[in-house]
Design brief:
Structural class: mainly alpha
Order of helices and strands: HHHHHHHH
Distance between the termini: 49 Å
Radius of gyration: 19 Å
Largest sheet: none
Oligomer: single chain
Strand content: under 5%
Number of strands: 0
Shape: elongated
Number of helices: 8
């Protein structure tokens, strides 16, 4: 059924997205706080960012030998860049006066990171997460069409092969609604952490 296939897709997206968060947000934080690291990492980011996530799929399948894990890896790859770039930008854009006040009050670096920089950068970080989730949901459908097995993408392709067009149209609508709900949830989170200037 479509419900089970949808659950498979959401599981893959959730896991790949979570792994991307664990890598991109701390790394983006460090890059944003250090202009030297920004200059060091920027060329690598600019080269890897434009590569289509699906271009990684053959390499992932060859290396990991598992379509499920390969799908998660592709979600990870496509989710990392918007989050990493937005986190670094958000951290680097924190108002200088706020950091000066923290320095004047002799706030420890860890406390400054969590109580000054993170709240100030949170809206930008969440924007990156929202973009990443949108891309991840797009990519998983295409990835599942390629590798087959389970998932909403596989369901669409399978129903097309069975020439069941009503099911294909229904699945497309489900993909759209789920994407809209995910975006709406991230929009709510974004508004929750937004602050008045």
């Amino acid at each position: 059924g479509i419900g089970i296939q949808l659950a498979h897709s959401l599981g893959r997206v959730g896991l790949g997205f979570l792994l991307a968060c664990l890598v991109a947000i701390p790394l983006g934080f460090v890059i944003g706080m250090s202009p030297l690291l920004h200059r060091a990492f920027d060329p690598f980011i600019q080269v890897l960012k434009p590569i289509s996530p699906l271009a990684w799929m053959p390499l992932a399948l060859y290396t990991l030998k598992d379509s499920d894990v390969s799908g998660i890896f592709v979600i990870f790859i496509c989710s990392v860049w918007p989050m990493l770039i937005n986190t670094a930008f958000g951290v680097a854009s924190v108002k200088r006066e706020w950091l000066n006040v923290a320095s004047t009050l002799e706030v420890t670096p860890l406390r400054k990171a969590f109580q000054v920089i993170l709240p100030a950068a949170a809206p930008t970080i969440l924007t990156g997460m929202r973009i990443s989730m949108g891309i991840a949901w797009l990519v998983i459908v295409a990835a599942e069409m390629l590798v087959g097995g389970t998932g909403i993408g596989y369901f669409v392709w399978n129903e097309w092969n069975n020439l069941s067009l009503p099911n294909v149209i229904f699945a497309i609508l489900v993909i759209g609604v789920v994407g809209m709900v995910l975006d709406f949830l991230f929009g709510l989170a974004q508004r929750a952490v937004a602050y008045a200037e």
